[in-house]
Amino acid sequence: MAGIVLKFSPTVGSEVTKGPFPRIRVEGEVMRADPGGPVIAYHDDHHWQVDGRSYSRLDCDCPAVQVYFERIDGTRSKIYGPLKDFSFVDGIAYMEHQVFAFADRSIIDWYCHADGQHWPLMVIEPA
Asked: Among residues of the chain, what percentage have pLDDT more than 70?
């Protein structure tokens, strides 16, 4: 199955991979493949938590991804991509090594620098 493989890297130690997934949904600070599906990872205390371990960095391993944001009513942002590099360090998302969005813990959503708006859901798909 083609899709996105997530590579979680700790400050010290070996990385762990999850996937492939057909898409990644980042709902606030919780990452899933499908709505209501099992949690792949969640962001807490400046790290991504996976299977009881903490990771400081997360890379989306896929030849190219596209990203968009979505509201509860189905309204979507523009599609960003295709992107060859999409990653997270702490609660900050980077596209092509530039700050793209950050998790706003105070209102449990993502603030997108590209459009200056808050969005409850970030979707990452193969491009």
From this structure: 99
